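Cross-posting from the modeling subforum.

Setting up a comparison between two proteins and wanted a second pair of eyes on the formatting. Protein 1 (sequence, then structure tokens):
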Amino acid sequence: MCHNAELEPTLQLFPINGIDLAVWEWPGEGTPLVFAHATGFHGRLWDPVIGLLQPRHALAIDMRGHGRSSKPEPPCRWRNFGADLAALVRHLNLRDAVAIGHSSGGYAVALAAALAPECFRALLLVDPTILPPEAYTRPPFDGSFALRRKNHWHSPDEMWQRFHDRVPFASWRPEALRAYCNFGLLPHDEHQALACPPAWEASIYNESNSPATDIYPDLPRIQTPATVLRASVERRPGVFDLRASPTAPDLAAKLRHGRDLVAEGHSHYIPMEAPELVAELIRSL
């Protein structure tokens, strides 16, 4: 991807719902594009997709607990992600925006469209973490694996060397992994620490199938046309695989104006594996 000074965004902090929400903004033309990232990541992971859409006005959010945004003490509440996004687009007085959300960011975009329908003209939900309805009645998901993540690093280059040939990062475009590493650390004592602390990430997973996270009562309020792009890697019973799609297979059918697409040959990490596919879908919206 061509990446030059003209494409560099500005970073702003907005007081939203009692926290500071970090927003990366690329100035440009046309319908505003609003991007929400997945659990454990940050807004700059959308760089490869946004770079293909220049010169378009784009905003990429660091969700609460991630990136440069505030990090309240866990536990995480998933509905806060959608409420933050809805409050932000209203604060910015956005209208007719196209919102793009990946994984938990797809959940946030869907909920924001239910809470602030006047702000959006189209949604692209990229393998959103909106589980089948019965999942929200099961025992809580165990996110303790996230607590074992290496938290302290000497540099982004150290992250790159550790991750570039490991699953799931080995299937990512190099520019996506570079963006993750370059913006995924914050200064911490003599080292650098993950911009999404392991305890916060673990709490997000712990709450992923909580009854309070269940978004199905909100879906009828979404009037905005929504495209659901699902990964072709399916979940298998009893197998823990973050590459598999968490999306309810019939999600699009439960939306008033839903469309279902499958990204053949791609895992849950569609934006990192196929930025051209995501960018082309955004153009079509």
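Protein 2 (same layout):
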Amino acid sequence: MLRTGIATLGMALVMALVVGAPGRGDDKNKKDDDKPDLLYVPTPPEVVAKMLDMAKVKKEDVVYDLGCGDGRIVATAAKKLGARGVGVDLNPERIKESRETIKKEGVEKLVEIREGDALKVEDLDKASVVMLYMLPEFMRKLQPIAQKKLKPGTRIVSHDFKFPTWKPDEEVDFKGPERTHTLYLWTVK
């Protein structure tokens, strides 16, 4: 557990450095008052499969992926398990990639991709499963929203980062292709 904590801390520090690094290339036209440059770290397919397995996703589920990146989690949930999905991301480039993923996987009828703030999803209460790979600050902000909006029985799986005060129902160290990932599962009471 100590090894995983150190790896997670190290990853968080690297992410903080990357996010705060000047001259990231895609901010040529960025103004000071624009939205922040957002870090995107794709979740390996093996980890996506483990996350869906931990949440026991089935055809009847509606999977929300907050910070969906390229849409691989909701696409996999739809294609392999028949679940419906909603992916939300703030970055227009990720939205474009998500829509391409959804089309490539042939799950357009099951998955909706939305551009927007993942902390302001109006219909989050429709989720039966919520998937996350977000930094600690996001997790801190999401916790009271999740407590208020999510229905009892909703499963939440987070990759590498947990809610600040919720004790997970399950914590798994999962060996991925390049490193060990920590996955957390909560079931809303």
